[in-house]
Q: What sequence folds into this?
C-alpha cells in the first residue's frame, strides 16, 4: 500500500511539473508580438515599410507594380521596388481579432498598402492564382475583416524566420475557416520577364525575409 501511494505521489508530481513547464511556453508563443527593427511591437493600423533583409538588384521595399507589362498598370500586384534602396510604399496590418492593438506572430491578418491608385481594385493583399502559369501570386483587391470562407484569400500571417532578431517572413495559410483546406506556403519572389520581382506563394522553402520599419 505504501509503495502504491508513493508511485501515485510521484506520478502526480511529474504531471504537475510537466504542466508548469509547458504552460508558460504555450502562453508566451501565443502572445509574442512581431517586432520592428527598433525592437517595438508592430501596432495595428499603423504604417510600416517592409524591407528585404538581403538587398539585391531590383529588390527594394515592398510596393505595387504591374506583373508583366510596363504599360499596363492594372491590376496591381505586390512587388519589390526596382530601386534597391527604396523603402517602398507603407503598409498597415489589421489582425483578425479587432481587439488586438499589436500584431501577434502567426495570427491571421489583412495587409493593406497606404496608397491610392487608378485601379478599381483595393490595395489590400489577396491570393491571386494565375491558372495559365500555374503560379499563385500576391495580388490586390481584398477587403478588410469578415473572416470566413468568402474572404479566405485575404488573410496572411507573419512568422519568425532567418537568423536575425527582427527577421520575419509572410505566410499564406489562412485559419479563418474551420472546414476549409487552403493552399499553404511561404511568400517568396517570382522574377518576371520585365525584371519585376513580384511576390507569390511557394512551397520551396525560399521565403522573402523581411524587416519592418515604422514609416
A:
Amino acid at each position: 500500500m505504501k509503495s502504491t501511494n508513493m508511485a501515485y505521489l510521484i506520478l502526480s508530481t511529474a504531471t504537475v511539473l510537466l504542466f508548469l513547464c509547458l504552460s508558460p511556453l504555450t502562453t508566451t508563443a501565443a502572445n509574442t508580438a512581431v517586432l520592428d527593427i527598433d525592437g517595438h511591437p508592430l501596432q495595428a493600423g499603423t504604417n510600416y515599410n517592409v524591407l528585404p533583409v538581403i538587398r539585391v538588384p531590383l529588390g527594394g521595399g515592398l510596393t505595387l507594380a504591374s506583373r508583366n507589362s510596363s504599360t499596363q498598370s492594372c491590376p496591381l500586384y505586390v512587388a519589390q521596388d526596382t530601386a534597391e534602396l527604396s523603402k517602398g510604399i507603407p503598409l498597415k496590418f489589421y489582425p483578425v481579432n479587432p481587439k488586438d492593438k499589436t500584431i501577434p506572430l502567426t495570427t491571421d491578418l489583412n495587409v493593406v498598402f497606404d496608397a491610392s491608385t487608378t485601379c478599381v481594385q483595393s490595395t489590400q493583399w489577396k491570393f491571386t492564382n494565375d491558372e495559365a502559369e500555374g503560379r499563385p501570386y500576391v495580388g490586390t483587391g481584398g477587403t478588410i475583416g469578415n473572416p470566413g470562407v468568402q474572404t479566405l484569400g485575404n488573410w496572411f500571417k507573419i512568422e519568425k524566420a532567418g537568423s536575425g532578431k527582427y527577421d520575419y517572413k509572410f505566410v499564406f495559410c489562412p485559419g479563418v475557416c474551420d472546414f476549409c483546406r487552403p493552399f499553404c506556403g511561404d511568400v517568396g519572389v517570382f522574377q518576371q520577364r520585365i525584371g519585376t520581382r513580384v511576390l507569390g506563394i511557394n512551397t520551396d522553402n525560399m521565403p522573402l525575409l523581411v524587416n519592418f520599419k515604422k514609416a
User: Anything to note?
Assistant: Residues 2-31 form the longest helix (30 residues). Residues 33 and 104 are 4 Å apart (CA to CA).
